[in-house]
Write a structure and sequence with these properties.
There is one protein chain. The chain is mainly beta. It is built from 2 helices and 9 strands, in the order ααβββββββββ. It has one domain: Beta Barrel (Lipocalin), CATH 2.40.128. It is globular and about 40 Å long.
């Protein structure tokens, strides 16, 4: 349970992403594509967190500016990485600070990272990924991410 909480907390803290690219760029992923392709594209897909809600209250503004451009990159080979984006909180930090595997489960309603951290998929389109997790303290964290052009 502690591991799940750590992954959930890490995911929330790391995914406060704000990228410099415009959201108006067209999304090449077909609307009717399978969910794994919506998440990872045909090769890989980068996601930027645009909203974080804790028990329904928006908290993304509490995120450090250096973490707001971090990216979560899903690959079609079912691997993922967390990437510092353009701005690092510490200049000596590695650009890629986490790697692992991802999968969908429960009829594509759950996103699982590293076989342990489970997130409920609330919405998945070619341009929006929204999921939630309930912490061990009973708090519901909901994240909304927007696809970025690679």
């Amino acid at each position: 349970m502690k591991t799940l909480q750590n992954y959930a907390y890490l995911l929330v803290m790391v995914l406060f992403l704000v990228n410099c690219k415009t959201a108006s760029e067209p999304d090449p992923t077909p609307v009717n594509a399978p969910k794994p392709q919506l998440i990872a594209g045909t090769l890989n897909k980068s996601w930027l967190v645009t909203s974080i809600k804790l028990d329904g209250v928006e908290v993304i503004n509490q995120t450090k500016p250096c973490a707001k451009d971090d990216l979560l990159v899903f690959s079609a080979d079912k691997t993922y990485e967390r990437n510092e984006g353009a701005t690092k909180c510490q200049t000596k930090d590695a650009q890629v600070y986490e790697k692992g595997t991802w999968e969908l489960a429960t009829n594509d309603t759950e996103l699982i990272l590293n076989k342990t951290a489970r997130f409920k998929l609330l919405e998945i389109t070619g341009s929006t990924l929204r999921y939630s997790v309930v912490s061990v303290f009973g708090e519901t964290r909901e994240l909304t991410l927007q696809a970025q052009s690679n």
